[in-house]
Amino acid sequence: MAPRHQRSLTRRKMLFALGGAAVAVPAIATVAPHALGGEARTSAPGSLPVTIANNSGSFDNASVHLYVVGNLDGRQVRLTPEGTVVPIALSDNGADGFTDYAIPLAGSGETKLSLPHMSGRIYVSLGEKLKFKAVADGNGDAALQYPAGWVESDPNYGVLHDCAEFTYNAAGMFCNTTMVDMFSVPLSIRLTGEKDQTTGTLRDGGRSAAFAAVRRIEEFARLVVDDTRIIAPGHGLDAGLFPEDYLAPYIDEVWSTYTGKDLKVTTNAGTFTGRVRGERFTFDGPASVSFAKPSTRDVFFCDGNLAAPNDGTTGPVAAVLGAGFNRSTLLTDAAQPSTDPAAFYRGELTNHYAKAVHAATEDGKAYGFAFDDVADFASYIQDTRPTGFTLTLTPF
């Protein structure tokens, strides 16, 4: 199997259209099934048994609210407690102006569901229900305004919540626990099928350790919202909670360093060799690709001047560069991607948020930024013959 950073990059785009009326679009990280490129495809069953296990130790089942929302065939949909996928409708809004798509957990023990083919997110909220609003998008179709825990004016800002992401269809099940936007509720996922895989499990005390680690870094401290969540630095930057030029000295040093020597980037298309020429980082190899100097925001969002089009050349190089910037490995390793996690986040100017969430997990894997799958360090698992999926709320 090819390294995931060498595959198609469409997985880093929104898997379900939020529509023009949607606000605070989440940076979804789920892998789309066609991101497997040339890998063999098999037929997954029509519905997948799903288990929800509440091992939080802090909230009983009655206090946990579950939502499965996403996309099917270009339409925004939700899952009912009976396992039926139904379209979002404007008439779903109640008297308070919001929908109630919550799926209650069983009175005790595990909750069993059936997941038909769809892509989307599984949200959990603790103590309070989430406020999803059905609105008309730019085409007049019903769409959802999703929770944006990083936006203080969002109606869900005060609600303790988090989510996992998935794509499930005939190609299989592709899923992750995401921290791309924020980290709040400890979640793990288990996928059975050809293999038995688990990821996302936090170490004992991992949540509090992550909160403490982020608080210790002066520039990052304001990203911690009480004991509710840690906001990813890109969103913090947009909210005025994080310095816009934080990474500028590191970015400038990368540009200066590679004016005088080569940087090699290996992808499935081959090896690209790059130098800064003029103001652009230009790579030659299987194709000629180049990048203008990114901003701190571009690095944290893996977008802008580091955007990754699905072209098989610019996209994979952008992903590797984005990972190198976030992990601060570009000055210490002129052959990218770096694959030794002991060398990640060693610089003073680095993504300390991503560093903290990786350190909090048992397997060292997390989705701290959108290109965190480079060299397979994301909390992502897949199976082309899945037999079951379990989402577990793990201890706080």
Describe the structure.
This protein has 396 residues and is of the alpha+beta class. The protein has two domains: 4-202 and 361-393, Sandwich (Thaumatin); 248-348, Metal Transport, Frataxin, Chain A. Helix content is 14%, strand content 30%. The chain has six helices and 23 strands. The chain has helices spanning 206-216, 233-238, 248-257, 296-301, 314-327, 352-360; strands at 47-54, 64-72, 75-79, 85-87, 103-104, 111-116, 118-126, 133-136, 142-145, 160-169, 172-177, 182-183, 187-192, 196-199, 224-225, 229-231, 263-267, 270-277, 280-284, 289-292, 335-336, 380-383, 388-393. The strands form five sheets. Strands 2, 3, 4, 5, 7, 10, 11 and 22 form an eight-stranded antiparallel sheet that branches. The protein has a five-stranded mixed sheet with strand order 6-1-23-13-14, with no helix packed on it. Strand 2 (64-72) and strand 3 (75-79) form a beta hairpin. Helix 1 packs antiparallel against helix 6. The model is unreliable at 1-43 (pLDDT under 50).
Secondary structure topology:
Blueprint: E1 47-54, E2 64-72, E3 75-79, E4 85-87, E5 103-104, E6 111-116, E7 118-126, E8 133-136, E9 142-145, E10 160-169, E11 172-177, E12 182-183, E13 187-192, E14 196-199, H1 206-216, E15 224-225, E16 229-231, H2 233-238, H3 248-257, E17 263-267, E18 270-277, E19 280-284, E20 289-292, H4 296-301, H5 314-327, E21 335-336, H6 352-360, E22 380-383, E23 388-393
Parallel strand pairs: 1-23, 17-21
Antiparallel strand pairs: 1-6, 2-3, 2-5, 2-7, 3-4, 7-10, 8-9, 10-11, 11-22, 12-16, 13-14, 13-23, 15-16, 17-18, 18-19, 19-20
Helix pairs in contact: 1-6
